[in-house]
């Protein structure tokens, strides 16, 4: 998804370096401690947050956790930032950067959960390496996640879902939850589901939403 460039969003992002990190140098360690009130709280990262409906709702609902929205596009980062400022979400930071460098942005074993929501499908096989569930991305998520850390993935794209199941399985990950129709699961599952913008759009057309939760095998084994 390419958003139309919004000059106000670019300006807002540039005015708030305390909330948005832009194009970080992968060689320089990010001082996350100074960016959160209490960095010892659980840390959850969404990769490819888009306009941020999911991550801002999470941050509002769980003030006892810290959240990071990692997003390539400045306009999207500006839209997330606007919500953060309106709702005073002090437990949310935004990174305008490429997830391909995620292992240089965060220390090893530092995050509790990584969310991938409606990631770009990159259907052509020559673009496989760009898919956010390709094995080189999984290796980086494994580095960043704690041993007990979870990867949660949702998509409307059956091809990307099938590919991701295979990719995570080949990587040796364990599945805690798999659904091929998330919106028709039991209420106790739906009660915990937070919709993203894309999810809302596709679910309202009655398209099935695919979801999985998985963990990496312990690194110390
Ligand atoms: C299809 S949109 C989904 C947005 C949102 N997660 C949702 O479900 O509504 C995918 C988003 O991922 C972002 N994205 C794609 N590749 C990325 C990468 N390598 N690093 C960071 N963000 C990425 C895109 O800019 C886009 O905003």
UniProtKB/TrEMBL annotation:
Binding site for substrate: 124, 156, 196-199
Alphabetical keyword list: Methyltransferase, S-adenosyl-L-methionine, Transferase, tRNA processing
GO MF term set: tRNA (guanine(46)-N7)-methyltransferase activity
Keyword tRNA processing tagged: yes
Entry's transmembrane regions: none
Cellular component terms per the entry's GO annotation: tRNA methyltransferase complex
Domain of life, source organism: Bacteria
Pathway: tRNA modification; N(7)-methylguanine-tRNA biosynthesis
Swiss-Prot/TrEMBL catalytic activity: guanosine(46) in tRNA + S-adenosyl-L-methionine = N(7)-methylguanosine(46) in tRNA + S-adenosyl-L-homocysteine
Pfam families linked to this entry: Methyltransf_4
Annotated residues for binding of S-adenosyl-L-methionine: 46, 71, 98, 120
Family matches, as Gene3D superfamilies: Vaccinia Virus protein VP39
E.C. code: 2.1.1.33
Keyword Transmembrane helix: no
Location of region: Interaction with RNA: 126-131
Matches recorded under PROSITE patterns: SAM_MT_TRMB
PANTHER family on file: 3-DEOXY-D-MANNO-OCTULOSONIC-ACID TRANSFERASE/TRNA GUANINE-N 7 - -METHYLTRANSFERASE (PTHR23417), PENTACOTRIPEPTIDE-REPEAT REGION OF PRORP DOMAIN-CONTAINING PROTEIN (PTHR23417:SF14)
Family classification: Belongs to the class I-like SAM-binding methyltransferase superfamily. TrmB family.
Record's function text: Catalyzes the formation of N(7)-methylguanine at position 46 (m7G46) in tRNA.
Protein name: tRNA (guanine-N(7)-)-methyltransferase
Naturally occurring in which organism (per UniProt): Lactobacillus pasteurii DSM 23907 = CRBIP 24.76
Species classification: Bacteria, Bacillati, Bacillota, Bacilli, Lactobacillales
Originating gene: trmB
């Amino acid at each position: 998804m390419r958003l139309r460039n919004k000059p106000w969003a670019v300006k807002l992002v540039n005015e708030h370096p305390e909330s948005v990190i832009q194009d970080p140098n992968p060689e320089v360690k990010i001082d996350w401690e100074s960016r959160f009130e209490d960095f010892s709280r659980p840390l959850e990262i969404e990769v490819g947050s888009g306009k941020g409906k999911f991550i801002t709702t999470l941050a509002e609902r769980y003030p006892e956790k810290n959240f990071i929205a990692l997003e390539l596009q400045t306009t999207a980062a500006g839209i997330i930032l606007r919500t953060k400022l309106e709702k005073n979400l002090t437990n949310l930071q935004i990174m305008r950067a490429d997830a391909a460098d995620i292992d240089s942005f965060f220390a090893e074993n530092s995050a509790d959960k990584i969310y991938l929501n409606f990631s770009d499908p990159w259907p052509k096989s020559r673009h496989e390496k760009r898919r956010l569930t390709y094995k080189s991305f999984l290796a980086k998520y494994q580095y960043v996640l704690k041993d007990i850390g979870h990867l949660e993935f949702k998509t409307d794209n059956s091809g990307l879902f099938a590919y991701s199941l295979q990719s995570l399985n080949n990587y040796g990950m364990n599945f805690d939850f798999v659904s091929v129709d998330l919106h028709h699961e039991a209420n106790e599952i739906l009660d915990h589901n937070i919709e993203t913008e894309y999810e809302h759009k596709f679910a309202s057309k009655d398209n099935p939403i695919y979801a999985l939760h998985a963990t990496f095998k312990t690194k110390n084994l």
